[in-house]
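Before the break, one more example. Copy the sequence into your notebook; we will annotate it together after we see the structure.
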Amino acid sequence: MRYVEIPVPEAYELQNAGGLVLVCTRGPDGRYDLAPAAWCCPLDYSPVSKLILVLDTGHRTYADLSDSGEFAVALPTKAQVDLVKRTGSMSGHDRDKFAELAIPAFSARVVDARIPEGVAGWLECRLSRIVVEGTSGVVMGEVLRAEAVPDAWKHRVHYVREGLWFAPGDGL
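Here is what the structure looks like once it is written out:
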């Protein structure tokens, strides 16, 4: 094998192949929000599933889940890449993404969040802990309920970096 040096600022790409998620929240003003997050992974599975998200502390979804203590993590499909790009390109601080983008959605079952229709599945979570490092919040949550289509992993979309997306089995 021939190895090449990876520039340190790009080293995260070697680990950034997990499925992208949409973090769904409700703010204290009653407005629902959602934002894509590429850094989400399992934390534990016994006695309950737990997960970790890394979010920018300046984003509305971070403020919402910090205030409410709950959130949902939706699993977008490759057919929803445009939705992911559009929700990630606007701030929820001053805009209602669900209304402005006319996102069809339904209510989560346990937490107060809206889930976009067509996702491969979702996890409803209670906030366990946040560790702040610079402008990043490492958010730990306990899964309260989860629903998904059969073989949900086959339908998920993955984000590596700008312009580089893939889906299991076929790439984008």
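The mean pLDDT is 91. The first strand starts at residue 21 and ends at 26. Try to locate both features in your own notes.
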